[in-house]
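[audit] Reproducing an earlier prediction to check determinism. Same input, same settings, fresh worker. If the tokens differ from the archived copy the diff job will pick it up downstream; this log only records the rerun itself.
[audit] input (149 residues):
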Amino acid sequence: MSAEVEDSWLASVLSESGWSPSRKVDVSGAIAAWSSDGHVLSEAAIDLVSRLDGTGFEYPRLIRVNGFDSCSFDAKDASRSIYPEVVRDYERFVEFPLCPIGVSASRHIVLLVSGGGAIYGGYDRFLACCGEGWKQAVWNIYHRIGARL
């Protein structure tokens, strides 16, 4: 992957769900969900949700398993998909606040964004960084590039 993921590649993956480089949507529902669950809001979370909320994509499963997985960005749905206490556990581990922003691996992984814009994926006691920014995270998820922490 190049240092910066190209908007043209993102458009090829996300355009069917309504994404464009200039996309901005209302974030009041996400803010209400995060506030209700006690999540610490950040400019990075609000900006990311304004660009991606309501979008998503499919990507190939592992070679040994036929079919596709899905990734969707919906902050309200993601907030409903994870207990706030689990998010607090993740926050204690990474030592900064996180906000749920979507789901991946066909809803098995909850995606969260840090105040610095890094995207994390969590499942039960597992948490890993998917990308230092949302574009890198989409690239890594789509290409099944291993998350790290």
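[audit] rerun output stored. Observation attached for the diff report: Residues 7-13+25-60+67-142 form a domain with the SMI1/KNR4-like fold (CATH 3.40.1580).
[audit] end
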